[in-house]
Design goal:
By secondary structure, this protein is an alpha+beta fold. The protein has 4 helices and 4 strands, in the order αβαβββαα. Helix content is about 45%, strand content about 20%.
């Protein structure tokens, strides 16, 4: 239900914090597939925090973080729009350059909101 509420207003960016955490693997995959397809149809980006490595194949870019620091950034070879790639690169830069290190999705969202005001 929370995912449906998040998508109803057609946002440009969807913040998903562990969307598969309370789900079995089959249902988790179905939910992430649905989010991925809807975001693609609407031209939206999803910033997802997850420990579920089974869904990483849907990612266009993977940022590996530990203790609030960016350890690794990996772009996946897929067809991407330039605008979305630039947007995701800006998010990666915010994470990489922020001092003190960012530790939560909420902190990243707050910085993004401040920069778009």
């Amino acid at each position: 239900m929370a995912i449906a509420r998040a998508l109803v207003s057609y946002p440009q960016l969807i913040l998903a914090d562990e969307p598969t955490a309370a789900l079995d693997s089959k249902t988790g995959r179905e939910v992430v597939d649905l989010m991925h397809n809807l975001a693609k149809e609407e031209g939206a980006a999803i910033l997802m925090v997850t420990h579920d490595h089974r869904i990483l194949d849907l990612a266009d870019r993977i940022l590996k973080m530990e203790d609030g620091s960016l350890l690794e950034e990996k772009a996946i070879a897929k067809e991407e729009s330039q605008q979305m790639d630039t947007y995701l690169q800006n998010i990666a830069n915010i994470i990489r350059e922020h001092n003190p290190p960012l530790s939560t999705l909420e902190e990243i969202a707050e910085i993004l909101r401040d920069r778009t005001r």
